[in-house]
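Morning run. Coffee first, then this:
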Amino acid sequence: MTLGQDWLSWSLMLLSLACDSHAFYVPGVAPINFHQNDPVEIKAVKLTSSRTQLPYEYYSLPFCQPSKITYKAENLGEVLRGDRIVNTPFQVLMNSEKKCEVLCSQSNKPVTLTVEQSRLVAERITEDYYVHLIADNLPVATRLELYSSREGDDKKKEKDVQFEHGYRLGFTDVNKIYLHNHLSFILYYHREDLEEDQEHTYRVVRFEVIPQSIRLEDIKADEKSSCTLPEGTSSSPQEIDPTKENQLYFTYSVHWEESDIKWASRWDTYLTMSDVQIHWFSIINSVVVVFFLSGILSMIIIRTLRKDIANYNKEDDIEDTMEESGWKLVHGDVFRPPQYPMILSSLLGSGIQLFCMILIVIFVAMLGMLSPSSRGALMTTACFLFMFMGVFGGFSAGRLYRTLKGHRWKKGAFCTATLYPGVVFGICFVLNCFIWGKHSSGAVPFPTMVALLCMWFGISLPLVYLGYYFGFRKQPYDNPVRTNQIPRQIPEQRWYMNRFVGILMAGILPFGAMFIELFFIFSAIWENQFYYLFGFLFLVFIILVVSCSQISIVMVYFQLCAEDYRWWWRNFLVSGGSAFYVLVYAIFYFVNKLDIVEFIPSLLYFGYTALMVLSFWLLTGTIGFYAAYMFVRKIYAAVKID
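And here it is:
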């Protein structure tokens, strides 16, 4: 308990760091300085939709292409996210305006979409696809101006400016489908202060777009690829009829504006989209929950346990005191090895691996080293860290397996290295086959899959074996009491000692401490939002560790008082009870927040959710198990056993 409160105090001291974590910038990324009329390359990332959860590469649709298509070399995280960064034909020069320019226009002729291409474009528009572009590694955003009237005064309206990632491919209106074929780029630059007689340099600090749909007849194009747009709102939108060929122009304009935003703060627009007050509410809510738990635990340990131990250690009237409480009665069986010790130690080893990986990733991200500007860095770091943390997972699993009287350490090490990663790889491979069938860029390419297998068997497996070998050779955990040869009979248990009831009881408080943050994480994963409040996430993670530890200690204490010494597996399962609530919340989020109706997107959602729930159960179950194990060893070391 004292250790948990120390953690909490330490984490609260980091609160100022937590709130301002987005102000940090990723070290090592240097700003690019542009001179007047220098080319600013516009690249395409992918097409995404929260309705289908299937990303596609930019040129999967019949957009205008440059003379030579060049794909950027991508890291592991970008490939797994479905990013396929490619050059585009947009010609943008620094601080140089363009009124209207026609793309892929040959001798003033419009682009003709075939029936098949028209059908594909119409399908993507009805599926609410967004197009994601980047300029100087800065993603494009669409400005949304929302007007909200004050209470009691309808005349005064407050303008609330929000930004949407990417831009909509098109829109539908009265069963007709319209394509956004004109893009008005608005780029903001910051002029750098220089010494006299030096040429001014500029840095891109914001990238906005206003997508428009303008029909072919309203655009007047000349042979120099310039064009004239209709004035005002007199034009009609460009309809896409999926049953016939469609002719249209792809056009764009460029407008530059000077901005006071400095380069180091240019991501703030994207990273401050979520309401920080809700995060504060989440933190305060979590702290209250933890203090509530601490109060319960203090009452149990200080009043009940000390009384129990004092009574047990009296030499007289031992029989009466033994009848008052039940946990001393099972001292000869409490450290009896459970069934399937190899599987238990393997799962706990994977839990330690996950714990180390998540702790380091969140801490490093909190310091600003995994900013969204380093595209895919978070996922790449997580994958490599999980591989390298295998040595710690193997060490803890090997030592616990030795403590549980296990002998086949080689088989145990193999089980630790393959059980959880094998389940993850199997589910991902099956889901990947479905994504392949849809020709989505979210499908992991075969060479990447081979590379991941090589990392698993070439890095993670040997490190797990290495850690397991040293863990198994190390002295096992010192249990304070001996185990009897004959197992004690377990009395009939009350209904509330049922395992499922325990899961429901133990899971609600840790889940309550983190469910608000869970909403933002789900939004980032399933609705293509940026998540960068890692300072808050770090505090929530610390609170989750403390609350899981405390509830686990309470549950194992009640179980031992009921004279049930089979706590190993039960405590591991019950401590991960909050994963059940995460599953329930994921189903609620799917039904209420997402507009997914097709089979494959639903399968992807629940497949990846199953992996998240499994990982979360391993994580919280491991935290709770080790807290309970330390507690049980502590209380039995405090009583005199004849």
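Residues 38-272 form one domain. Good start to the day.
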